[in-house]
Amino acid sequence: AGGDALERGSLSEWRINGMEIAMAFLLAESPATNLVVDCRGDVCAGPCLAAKKAVAAAKIGDVVEIITNESSDLTDAFDGWARKTGHEFLGYRDGDGYERIFIRRGR
Q1: CA-CA distance, 93 to 99, in Å (whole number)?
Q2: Residue 68 phi, psi (nearest 5)
Q3: Which of 27, 43, 52, 75 could bridge 91 with an S-S bond, Cβ 3.0-4.6 Å?
């Protein structure tokens, strides 16, 4: 509705007029990717370390897809990590028992 104030905190803290919106970064379509890292079965820290290595190996502007079946809290962690390190968290898509997370290499 016109005039709604949209504010963004962290991934899970989108608000319109004080009301939270869940899954703000849930993508309708997958972006084209340059590199895919399948971390299904890896426990916490594994997907994060694999993503860090993959993004470092990618060229500036490349999109890296991380596939993980870890908890959805990882999407929040990837969003924060990408912002702190100069990359862009594009969002995620739900798979069948896993999530597909997309990060564009910034610098």
Answers
A1: 6
A2: -145, 150
A3: 27
Q: Which of 18, 104, 26 is nearest to 63 (CA)?
A: 104
DSSP state of 5: P
Q: Can you read off the two tokens belonging to residue 53?
A: 């290595």
Q: What is the Cα–Cα distance from 34 to 59, expressed in whole angstroms?
A: 9
Q: Say whether 93 sits in a helix, a strand or coil.
A: strand
Query: What are residue 71's DSSP bridge partners?
Result: none
The 10 Å Cβ neighbour count of residue 12 is 16
**What CA–CA distance (Å, rounded) separates 69 from 107?**
28
Rounded distance, CA 54 to CA 90, Å? 15
Predicted structure pTM score: 0.74
Query: For residue range 7-25, what is the model confidence (pLDDT) as tens digits?
Result: 444 444 444 444 444 445 7
